[in-house]
Amino acid sequence: MSTLQLKLLFLLLLLATSNGALQVLNEAKGQWQLLQANIGIVAMHMQLLHNDRVIILDRTDFGFSNISLPNGTCRHDPTERAVRTDCTAHSVEYDIATNTLRPLFIQTNTWCSSGSVDSYGRLVQTGGDADGARAVRTIDPCPACNWQEDPNGLLVRRWYATNHILPGGRHIIVGGRGEFNFEFFPKKNPADFRPHFMPFLKDTTDNLRQEENNLYPFVFLNVDGNLFIFANNRAILFNYRNNTVVRIYPAIPGGEPRCYPSTGSAVLLPLNSLESETVEAEILICGGATRPAFIRAGQGMFLNALNTCARMKITNQNPNWVLETMPGSRVMNDMITLPNGNVLIINGASEGSAGYDHAVNPVFAPFLYKPNDPAGNRFEELNPSRIARMYHSTAILARDGRVLVGGSNPRGNYVFKGVLFPTELRFESFSPPYLDPQFSDLRPTIVSPNNLSPRNLTYKESFKMVICFKDGRVVAAPDLVSVTMYAPPFNTHSFSMNQRLLELSNGELRSSGSNMSYEFDVRMPPSPFLAPPGFYILFAVHQGIPSEGIWIQLQEMDKYQPNY
């Protein structure tokens, strides 16, 4: 088939299928599936690794979990508040392919901790409570790997802190209860061996003893290499290299808090036009609670959660927040960026705040936010779960496009009956509308590169991608094919640390052989300011329908070390 014939066929199929496909996509509402009736622990923290296994963490002082450690292994801690000798696990590895679990041994307390994956694919998990408050824990993605722990790896206690990977491959750990500072891991320079004071964290604290409203701050790497940091209802652009505030952003209209315990969530919307001189970056923050909600909930009075999202282009010369209204109120909601650029708002409640027994009226139905649709028409309510996901719930995106959902334990220990919201050990998946079987003809399959082992790529590198469709029956419409690159986040307390999606530059589609496959060139991001080094999932997206992803490793650039 000639190039001209192929283009004509593209145009005909585009006219025939694209409008109808997008209309049907709007009518699909997603599907839920119970994966495990009991994973043994509460999924308080989750991280997907590049071996397609999910590391899940609870806390060590809930008491005995529902899954035993192997080979008679036990955790001994004479200072433990719950159980001093505990032969049950408080961390597990979930294998997505086989739907099986492997218990992991962890010694220090991970309650309300944080994490990020380094450029080599190792999970670096930090902080927590009690003996875990200064701990650094690491685990590699291998079949028999287990946690390695340094109980004194941090300079100060990090409880409710936020981590982010930096352009040079190091981690920054920001804040924590009573800690108005940040530090780096690993430590390379003399200045790294002291915490760096950040006045912004102190200024955004409402009440240190009752309701801070700035814990688990929302931290994102901006396209200029600085950090966007949001706490309470305010944000700054921060140069972490010299500890200076580059820019002060307007407060969110209305002044209500969005960070713990008035917990909403936030995402960096997909980055695109990566080759342009100025790449735009836009933040979306949704949900949260009114300022007195936490205190009132402690008195048995549950106030309505916030029903708004705030969106702002942080790279604009004169940025301002624009408010949008969700289909309903939501607190403790997670926000997951999907491969096609839409945002899934999932989990949480409609009244109260974060905290033990501080919320009622769970929200069972996810909301889908479509950032490229016209304002006022961006939200869609999807099919509900039957499981309440309250405080200490989590959600992450898997490589196959499903969203894995677990957790919920609004109690101070394991309580399975006699309470309104018992400890939840069930683990489920939500298949967004794009996974509906009616779209199988539109769903691309990535033929090359394959997913047998992650391909190593460098910044600005171009490579050939080959895609095909079911039975060779669908010809892709050139203008509706894109490639996205996703950084799997560390999810806890309604925030997905390090989550980002980039739309890569891709060339014109070409026919590839006689099996109705198509090839095109894809170009990696030009700078680690746009995408820090590490493992990412690549998706081919056709008419809003993503393929199953493939893993790639974006390698470090030496010139960005160690100062970045």
Automatic annotation (TrEMBL):
<feature type="signal peptide">
    <location>
        <begin position="1"/>
        <end position="21"/>
    </location>
</feature>
<dbReference type="InterPro" id="IPR011043">
    <property type="entry name" value="Gal_Oxase/kelch_b-propeller"/>
</dbReference>
<dbReference type="Pfam" id="PF07250">
    <property type="entry name" value="Glyoxal_oxid_N"/>
</dbReference>
<feature type="domain" description="Glyoxal oxidase N-terminal">
    <location>
        <begin position="44"/>
        <end position="434"/>
    </location>
</feature>
<dbReference type="InterPro" id="IPR014756">
    <property type="entry name" value="Ig_E-set"/>
</dbReference>
<dbReference type="Pfam" id="PF09118">
    <property type="entry name" value="GO-like_E_set"/>
</dbReference>
<keyword id="KW-0732">Signal</keyword>
<dbReference type="InterPro" id="IPR013783">
    <property type="entry name" value="Ig-like_fold"/>
</dbReference>
<dbReference type="InterPro" id="IPR037293">
    <property type="entry name" value="Gal_Oxidase_central_sf"/>
</dbReference>
<dbReference type="InterPro" id="IPR015202">
    <property type="entry name" value="GO-like_E_set"/>
</dbReference>
<dbReference type="InterPro" id="IPR009880">
    <property type="entry name" value="Glyoxal_oxidase_N"/>
</dbReference>
<feature type="domain" description="Galactose oxidase-like Early set">
    <location>
        <begin position="443"/>
        <end position="553"/>
    </location>
</feature>
<protein>
    <recommendedName>
        <fullName>Galactose oxidase</fullName>
    </recommendedName>
</protein>
